[in-house]
Design goal:
It contains 7 helices and 7 strands. The strands form 3 sheets. Strands 5-7-6 form a 3-stranded antiparallel β-sheet. Strands 1-2 form a two-stranded antiparallel sheet. The longest helix is centred in the first third of the chain and has 18 residues. The chain is globular, with a radius of gyration of 17 Å.
């Protein structure tokens, strides 16, 4: 389950990166073999570092390349998840949450899983960013976000401008 959590979170970040036009163009240049040139600009360096932190790209002496290991891990994780319908997996259909558990302990476990999949410890995200990532799992993002705040899994800035990761459990 832990490996699946990791790859799910990574793929949500990949999807968010693909939504960003400059990150998408840069990834396309790397994948097509055009590369980034001799000295990428500040913005390109930032985008490359973001792709590297997600795990989709890695830097080798020859330049930036796709991290095939991430793809292999994701496929293996998807196969394992299909077979595993125990624990919180019983509330999911693939990666989509089909039922929010009624039992508080199960609901909390599902919320911790979702929180860990959508935000890293060092990130602070705007509400629209949190919503975009939660929407991958369930259409009622306001409900999920509110539960996470109520459970102190997400901490909301006093002015409501951003969210960061709360308590670990």
């Amino acid at each position: 389950m832990n490996q699946q959590l990791n790859t799910t979170g990574q793929w949500i970040q990949v999807t968010a990166g693909l939504k960003n036009p400059s990150m998408r163009r840069l990834l396309g240049a790397v994948l097509s073999g055009e590369g980034t040139g001799e000295a990428p600009g500040k913005s390109e360096r930032k985008d490359l570092e973001r792709w590297a932190s997600i795990g989709l790209l890695r830097q080798e002496p020859s330049g930036w390349v796709l991290n095939d290991e991430l793809l292999e891990q994701t496929l293996a994780s998807a196969a394992a998840a299909k077979a595993d319908r125990t624990g919180i997996r019983r509330y999911f259909d693939g990666h989509r949450l089909h039922t929010l558990p009624a039992k508080p302990a199960d609901r909390h476990e599902v919320l911790v899983y979702l929180r860990n999949a959508v935000i890293d410890a060092q990130e602070e995200l705007r509400e629209e960013q949190i919503n975009e990532r939660l929407r991958v799992f369930h259409p009622d993002v306001a409900l999920l976000r509110r539960y996470m705040v109520d459970h102190s899994l997400l901490l909301r800035a006093a002015d409501g401008s951003g969210y960061r990761k709360g308590s670990e459990n």
